[in-house]
Each structure stands twice: as C-alpha cells, then as structure tokens.
Amino acid sequence: MTSTAAKALGAWLGLGALLLIGLIYELPALSVLLVGWMLVYFVVAGFVVADAIRLRRRQDLHALQASANLVKIAAIPFFVLNFVALTRVVIHVGSADKDHFGLRGFLTALLFVVLTYLVLLPTSAYTVGCLTLMRKTDRIGPVFYGLHLILQFLFVTDIVGAMVVIEVARNRLGTARPPSVVTKHLLTGVLLVFSTLSTIWLVVVGVYYLDWRIFVGTTLDFQLAIVPAVAFMVLVVVPVVPLVALRIAVRYFLADDLDALRRSNRAVKLTMIPLFVQNLVLALVITGVLSALSLYLVRSTSDLWFTATIASLSLAPGLICGYLMLLPTSIYGIACLALLMRRRAITPAFCAVNVIAHLFFVTDVISALVVARRAGHILAGRSNG
Length: 385
Fold this sequence. Notes:
It is a single chain. By secondary structure, the protein is mainly α. It has two domains: 4-173, no CATH class; 181-384, no CATH class. It is built from 18 helices and no strands. Helix 5 packs antiparallel against helix 6, helix 7 runs parallel beside helix 12 and helix 14 packs antiparallel against helix 15. The longest helix has 35 residues, at 61-95. The chain is globular, with a radius of gyration of 24 Å.
C-alpha cells in the first residue's frame, strides 16, 4: 500500500512539472511561484523521509516498494522538464552576459544543478529504505546493496536503480506478476513501427535519387525524415518504453528465464536496424549540406579546417542522439549476459567483451546474435540432458 506521504510528494512533483512548463514558455511570475514551490517541497520531503524511516522500522517492505515506485515515476516528468528549463534559462542568461563571457549563465546552471540535486534526494528515501531493509534481512547481497545505494544519489541512475530495486523487492515478497503480452513486446513493437517507417523512407530516398520518382510522392521523403526525432523522444526524452523494458528484463532475470531474454534481445536488435540506418543517413546528409555551404562561403581551400570543423560539429548531434537511442535496446542483452554469468555458463571475459560490444553501433547486433546462439546451445543442452 502506497503511503500518504509518498502520494503527497508525487502530487507536488506533478505540480512542479506544470510550473516548469510555464517557466519554459516564460509565463509571468513563474520564477516566484517556483521558489514558493521549492520551500513547500522541502517541508513535504521532511515528512517523506520520516515516513520512510517509519516504514523501515516496521519492516514494511511492501509499502516501501510501492511508495518508491510512485515517487520515482512521478519524478520523471519533473526532471525531464527541469532539464529543458535549465537549458533555456542558461542560454538566455549566458547570451545576455557577453561582457563577462557568459559567466552568469554558468553560475545559473550551477544553481539549477544544486537545487535539482536537493529535489532528487528525498525521492530516493523509500528506495534506500527498501535496500537497507532487504540487506538487514539477507534478501540481497552486499554488492547489490552498495551499488544501488550509490546509484540512488546520482542523476538518471537513481531512476534506473529504483526500478531494479522495486522489482527485486517484489520478487522477494512474492508479489511479482508475469509480464503481460503488451509490456513483454512493447520495446520490440515500438521499434518495429519506427523501423517500418524508416524502411519506407530509405526506399523512397533511394528511388528518388535513381530518378524513379514516378512511383513515389515528392514529399514523402521529407515527411518521414522526422522518424528518428520522434524515436528519440520516445526512447530517450520520455523514457516510458525503456523503463518498461528494464522492468521486464529484471523480471526475466529473477525468474531465470534465459530463453525469453535471448529472444527479446535478438528481436530488438534486429528490428532496430532500419531506424539506425536512417538516423545515420540523415546525419551524413546534414553534415554534407553544411560542409558544402561552409566551403562555398569561405571560397578557399586554405580554410578547409573551417569546413572540417563544421562537418564534425554537425555530425556529432546525430551520432550522440543515435547512441542514446542505442542504450535502451541493449537492456535485454545485458540482462541475458548477467543471467548466463549467474548460471556460470560463460566466463567473465566473455561477459565483459559482450557487454562492451552491446554499447556500440554494429557490434551490438553482432554480439546479440553471438549471445543468442550461446544461450540457445545452453538451453538445448539442458533440454537434451
């Protein structure tokens, strides 16, 4: 049962997210309202910390994990919008302070980061309570406890760590439910939609440049060029789908379901290929256009360094966005490798090499196929035995 204090904190974080939207659109008096919101927040946070301590002393793991789940999910919109507001305010303040080299922008960013960190800390109270209680009752080991305790005090990783801790707590309580058909295939389904649209775009662009335009529309290539941007929003900016995939992967791991992990990993990695090809092609096109424009403007081969700089700067955002989209697609693969290690079916070196391979373009797909093959042999051997 979720505690009242957790519900209050979740509701207050929701109000904070709405105020941040107003700040982003520069509505009047929003800065003053946010200051008032912050003061009340710390009062609510005090009750949350006290409530987490109370539940920990009562050894109420069920209430702790339920409260942690609510608070961490409610915190996601707030921190996403907070990052957007931070970027907007820092750019505005920094650009208006040219005489001091944008120093006020850096100071504003530092103030934002400190205040955001102070907001972060109370949201981890229930998760820390889960960890300390499970460690005291020997439900988790010291390595798991120490690692996830640290993660609860860091940006972004606190959400990821909390989802893992909550699933482990539910497993220990025996309240974990089997994943539904929708959640089980959510990440693969989302990638399938994006990759289908990306495939259409790639075909249209290929046909367009082969001068077969009679078979295609003239604007479809421009309309579908937005697919990687939408995918970035779904997979990174609003990380609902990745967090669902993370929770499902943890459930598979705890249930010792190696077959489900290897199948999910292979399906995700193969499905995502057209989307990432489109993202790369678009990045290269943008880089080529900007490089040609810069070369035309300088009109001198002696200033090729300028063109090279423009090319590097224009290619970097596409690669960075693509890499951030890549990370959620490796969730099942890393969980599969962890399960193989727990079974002692692979060596630490094999695990380390393939975990690293899952974090880079192209090698992640190759590694997924290698790991799926290894897991398939292990499952076949067990069934034969």
